[in-house]
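Quick start: what a row looks like.
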Amino acid sequence: MRRIALAVGIFGALFIPGAAQAAAPDGPGPWADRVVDTIQGVRADGTPVLPARSNPTAALGVAERTDAEGTFYSLGFITPQAGGRISLGYDNGVCNGPGADIELVESTIEPFQPELVDVFVSRDAVTYRKIADDVNKDAMVSLPADVGCVQFVRLVDQTPRLKNLNDGYDVDGVRAIFTQPQGRFSCSANALRADTLAIDLANANEESVPCADDSETVASTPPDSPVQATALNASTDASPGGEQGGTSRSSAADVFLEEIGLRATLVESTATVSCDAQGNPRLNGSSRLVGLSFPGQPSLVTGPVTIPIPEVGTLYLNYQTVQDGRLIQRAIFLDGPTLLGRSSDIVVAESEADFSGNPCP
């Protein structure tokens, strides 16, 4: 709250035309972009907070760092034990970084009594977690180590109700010191690819393209193909179950790789990208082979297997690789040599999921 050293009789001077205006939301910048909710209390003497201090949007955008009326929002007192509150939303999030993560800017003419708030954060504007108690005026606040990024900051007044003209903590601006970079989720799937054989069947979405609902099914490979399969399917889903992220799936039945004698009644793979509880991207992948038949190998494969095949290449079963935010999951991967500048790889049931930046809320 700003200390008012003037007599009550001249409060009208605060409403003159041309009074300072609060900053507008700063879009891609680090300051608060919108007011989610607010409950304003009263002054310490029980009278209403002045209108010039009652516009919650004055807490948005770049802090003016002045004492001018109209550039801040006063939280006020609800009861002698609890003050008003404001909840602010951020388009680019508030993220954990080295040192402090949130800057609070409060408008007070010093010297004056402490102006205190408790600070809460949330990812969904429903469940809030307290991260700081009794923060006094201008201050820096850190997110807990187990919090990645949040989208909402709530301030709840805890100012002692001592002076009659006190109207609680005056919010000039709240800045995210570290914002999340713009990012996106991507996913793609492919049921069967044999490079030198010019086979590329059942594709969903494209590599490095944002996740979208897509699917393709192919009944079978050509009869004379050295790689045989039926019921080839690939699909991708954007925001499965309403959650942030995407899923890719691929499968094929009655698989036969003539060159190495491998057979399987069913192969499938899945790759997902989603947001974890701390607001960070998370990748997961798995694959499955049923009815596997391959010389010298057991009929059931429960984990990743690498089999060197002389003069052919390397056979990988339940293959997974993760690099630079990209997960590739392949049920069957025959890594062959490059011939005349062209790969001779054969891949059955490939699913990919990846992310760039941090697209989580």
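That is the whole record. Confidence is low (pLDDT under 50) at residues 1-19. The chain has no helices and 22 strands.
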